Amino acid sequence: MKVYVVNHPSASWCEDYAVAVIAESKERAIEIARNYSPDFKNATDLNVEVYEVDREHPVLAANVGA
Fold this sequence. Notes:
Elements: E1 2-7, E2 18-23, H1 26-36, E3 47-51
Antiparallel strand pairs: 1-2, 1-3
């Protein structure tokens, strides 16, 4: 298993813009993110980052901004 962070770069105010997923593959991570968040359901511009879990490191820093 790996940790995938699925990002939705065109998300707007009050929408989910990132989902961290533990999955077997990138394709499965996207599927899980789409099922988890309605904001990802029909998005066409999702980006995926993969993180190995054999060492400690940050995977997501989220900021809404003002």
